[in-house]
Specification:
- The complex is a heterotrimer of chains A (157), B (329) and C (373).
- Chain A has 157 residues and is an alpha/beta fold.
- Chain A is built from four helices and seven strands.
- Chain B is built from 13 helices and no strands.
- Chain B is an all-alpha fold.
- In chain B, helix 3 runs parallel beside helix 11, helix 6 packs antiparallel against helix 9 and helix 6 runs parallel beside helix 13.
- The chains are: A alpha/beta (157), B mainly alpha (329), C alpha+beta (373).
- At the B-C interface, helix 6, helix 10 and helix 13 of B face helix 4, helix 5, helix 7 and helix 14 of C.
Chain lengths: 157, 329, 373
């Protein structure tokens, strides 16, 4: 079984069918989107790790009502990319996946300093790109000039 | 060591004139070599090299030297000041001594000592001390790393260097340069001792910290190695000493293996000995430059392995074989 | 190496800041090395000196205004970034550029890839202490810059692509120059191989040095030539063909061990494959318009998002664009390959020598401003 199908199967068992959204024609560049509650994130990542995926990108989106973190997972197969989306309130915490993927060590440091959400369990949450004394979170929409600050449903609804 | 005439006035006059000539010659020669190196590098790399100052940039290094003299001499705040100042002097003075015994021509040896060869090698070791002092006194980790590398490298490479030279000395039974050169009137020792010549040249490259053995000042690793903290003419002295050292090792190679002032196989083509000597030395210098602009740098442990596992046994073997053959003949 | 490695009890530890100003950190990168003598015990790359906030800039300008930013992240393969951004926006907005434009973009992008690899080749050899190949490469690279300068108007930070085409059409001279360049480059391979690949010192410096195997590459998200050197034939141009790459016949060069020598071979072979792509693209390039006229300058994509991955010179790069339906992107995120490639050094540099650390740093081909963004 291909790594992608195996991972899908196991995530379906873990989170239920409702968490998965397919994009069969790859229009958004992602074959499946997984909506994942914060508690299950590490379990989902472990499945991906065991199925031979790597953490391609980790980034966040800032909405008026919530923050959303998007983990893009990929493996060395055509069109296998999947997105794991996690919602998190502005003052919340997200479990760190750095124990699963080493690459998350840096990516979570970056996401933490840009969005101000702590990654609980990260061994070394220092500033990565910003100066050591930076006390701001630049990619939040209330920092600097932005064109729009919207609610989540205004973009994805 | 000293001859009977040592106390006469003519002797001292001769020595002083010789020293002055040596000073001027070594300085100009080093400046010329710097220019030559840049030209050789330029042409190897499909570019022209210095072209602006003087014909074909010939005066470029003189202008550079003037610039270096005009630069501020910076001493790092926590450096060992005395040692820091002494090191460039220490690196440059001993190389001048070597010129005193080099056999430029049949009548062009300032002091033809009976231990001339030993004198050169004894004094060339000073440059390692100077590098260690300079690297230590700089209070800079890169400089210290460079100095440590330099000492380790020198220890490893002086042994095969001397062993390879010894096999020549065995054949002539003398440390005197004039006798070493005279013995090669018909056949150069490079044909009788090809292995020793090869080992000598490899070790000489390492001894002068030239690429591919330039690990003490490995630019891409240690910034500038032992002279990272040196500026102005202090850096200039290190720089000139490197080129003067190059000249010395090549001159020694010429007189030990390539017949000194003799032409090939006894034919001199009516060309003066000093021209032969300098021409051969410059060919060897060109080869050194050619190395530098062709090879990548070896790694430190590879360098040590090569010396201890290949060069030293090989030169030892060469020495034993030479001794055996000489005994049997 | 391991047999000499000092035991913990004998270690005398000190730390050394390699950079931010150092001849071979390729930009403002600082690697905090913990050393025992010349052995590296720990390596911690410290980045961010060149952080300009490109992602934040994307939130307050239009899509087209972001185009110059795209080429300033990785300044050595600016056109590839440019191309990728253009494709991402086109995918988001549903724009289909004319055929000719696609071919022009592919040719220019591959030229840019070659120029980036050539520069890597030169600087890598310079890190190993060989200065001459660097200038040979610059000589060749100069040709590419001249060609791209003529069509795009800039030599380093291109903004050549437009949504629905390119900014200017190419002419016959471009085709001739490109063909002449490929011929020239191919005639140079023997020189490079004689000077470098067959050099015994070079081989000893790079063989079995800095091994990045498949598993390590996956843990750290290493992509591009560094991953292919480990034996994984993973190239976005083949796996998720974009533009017209599926029409060309080319191979993905792979290595076996993932050491510096494999990475070197893979990149050299990739240049040759790029030449093949360019040749085929030049042969197939149709006449016709070079730009779709109906596209507005102020593109207004519908609501939604796109994650578009493409192969830049350093590996898998991706733009993650979120649109709220306005002419301004709601979020621009760039997945940069050097990020993972550099991060894996925290593991790879352990128990090496300082000289090897420099060689490894050179062999993975990082561009620091790309990581800093």
């Amino acid at each position: 079984m291909a790594a992608k199908d195996e991972a899908l199967q196991r995530i379906r068992e873990l989170l239920g069918e409702g968490a998965l959204t397919a994009d069969p024609d790859f229009r958004t560049g992602v074959s499946w989107t997984i909506t994942c509650p914060r508690e299950s994130l590490v379990a989902v990542m472990r499945i991906f790790e065991e199925c031979g995926f790597y953490l391609e990108s980790l980034t966040g989106l800032d909405f008026q009502d919530t923050l959303e973190f998007v983990y893009h997972m990929n493996t060395y197969e055509p069109r296998a990319r999947m997105a794991v989306r996690v919602l998190c309130p502005h003052d919340g915490e997200i479990p760190s996946v750095s124990g699963v993927f080493s690459s998350a060590l840096w990516q979570e440091r970056e996401a933490w300093e840009f969005f101000g959400v702590r990654f609980s369990g990260h061994p070394d949450l220092r500033h990565l790109l910003l100066p050591e004394d930076a006390d701001f979170h630049p990619l939040r929409k209330d920092f600097g000039t932005v064109h729009a600050y919207r609610k989540r449903e205004e973009v994805y609804g | 060591m000293m001859e009977a005439a040592a106390t006469s006035g003519a002797y001292w006059l001769r020595l002083i004139i010789g020293l002055v000539i040596v000073l001027i010659f070594s300085q100009l020669n080093a400046l010329f070599l710097v220019w030559l190196e840049r030209k050789v590098a330029g042409h190897i790399q499909v570019r022209l090299g210095p072209m602006e100052v003087g014909p074909h940039g010939l005066l470029q290094t003189i202008v550079d030297g003037i610039k270096l003299v005009g630069k501020e001499l910076i001493t790092p705040a926590r450096a060992d000041r005395i040692l820091f100042v002494i090191a460039p002097v220490l690196v440059f003075t001993p190389v001048l001594v070597a010129f005193l015994v080099l056999p430029f021509g049949p009548d062009l040896i300032i002091r033809d000592m009976n231990v001339g060869l030993l004198l050169i090698f004894a004094f060339s070791t000073f440059s390692v001390l100077a590098i260690l002092v300079g690297g230590w006194a700089s209070n800079n980790k890169y400089a210290l790393l460079g100095a440590i590398r330099s000492v380790a490298q020198a220890v490893a490479y002086e042994i095969p260097l001397l062993l390879s030279v010894m096999s020549v000395v065995l054949m002539v039974n003398s440390f005197r340069f004039s006798e070493l050169v005279m013995a090669q009137q018909r056949v150069w020792f490079v044909f009788l001792q090809p292995v020793a010549a090869l080992i000598y040249f490899i070790c000489a490259t390492a001894e002068t910290n030239r690429a591919p053995f330039d690990i003490p000042e490995a630019e891409s690793e240690l910034v500038a190695g032992f002279h990272t903290e040196y500026s102005g003419m202090r850096f200039g002295l290190f720089f000139l000493a490197e080129y003067t050292n190059m000249f010395i090792v090549c001159a020694v190679a010429t007189s030990l293996f390539f017949g000194g002032w003799h032409g090939p196989f006894g034919f001199s083509f009516k060309i003066p000995g000093v021209v032969w000597f300098l021409a051969k030395t410059y060919v060897l210098l060109y080869v050194l430059m050619w190395f530098r602009w062709t090879f990548p740098r070896v790694r430190f442990d590879q360098l040590m392995n090569f010396s201890w596992k290949v060069l030293i046994p090989l030169s030892m073997l060469n020495l034993v074989i030479t001794a055996l053959v000489l005994k049997l003949i | 190496m391991a047999e000499y490695f000092p035991q913990p009890a004998q270690q005398q530890i000190y730390s050394l800041n390699l950079g931010p100003q150092h001849p071979s950190t390729h930009g403002v990168l600082r690697v905090l090395l913990t050393l025992d003598g010349e052995y590296v015990l720990e390596a911690d790359p410290i980045i961010g000196y060149g952080h300009r906030g490109h992602e934040k800039m994307g939130e307050n300008r239009t899509y087209l205004q972001f185009m110059p930013n795209a080429s300033r992240m990785d300044y050595l393969s600016g056109l590839l970034y440019n191309h990728g951004f253009c494709l991402a926006v086109e995918k988001l907005a549903g724009i289909d550029p004319p055929e000719r434009a696609k071919y022009i973009r592919v040719i220019c992008a591959e030229l840019n890839r070659i120029s980036s690899h050539l520069l890597w080749f030169g600087t890598f050899l310079m890190d190993l202490g060989a200065f001459t190949p660097f200038l040979y490469c610059f000589d060749d690279r100069e040709n590419i810059l001249d060609i791209l300068d003529r069509v795009s108007g800039s030599r380093l930070t291109y903004s050549y692509c437009r949504f629905g085409g390119v900014s200017r059409d190419v002419d016959e001279v471009f085709v001739e120059q490109t063909r002449a360049f490929i011929k020239r480059l191919r005639s140079r391979w023997p020189d490079y191989h004689n000077l470098v690949t067959k050099n015994v010192i070079f081989i000893h410096r790079v063989r079995d040095v800095g091994i990045i195997d498949k598993d390590l590459a996956r843990r750290f998200g290493v992509t591009g030539p560094n991953l292919r050197a480990a034996g994984v034939a993973f190239d976005m141009r083949k796996v998720e063909p974009y533009e017209v790459y599926d029409r060309f016949d080319f191979e993905i060069p792979t290595g076996t061990k993932g050491d510096a020598l494999d990475r070197y071979r893979v990149r050299l072979e990739e240049m040759e494959q790029s030449c093949r792509i360019i040749e085929q693209a030049l042969d197939q390039m149709p006449a016709g318009p070079y730009r779709q006229e109906r596209v507005r300058l102020k593109v207004k994509p519908p609501r939604g998002e796109v994650y578009f991955a493409f192969e830049s010179a350093r590996g898998q790069t991706a733009y993650y664009l979120v649109s709220d339906g306005s002419p301004y992107p709601y979020r621009v995120h760039v997945r940069v390959p050097s990020f993972g490639n550099l991060h894996c050094l925290t593991d790879v540099l352990k128990e090496t020598l300082v000289a090897d650390a420099i060689a490894i740093l050179g062999s993975i081909d990082i561009v620091v401003p790309e990581i800093d963004r």
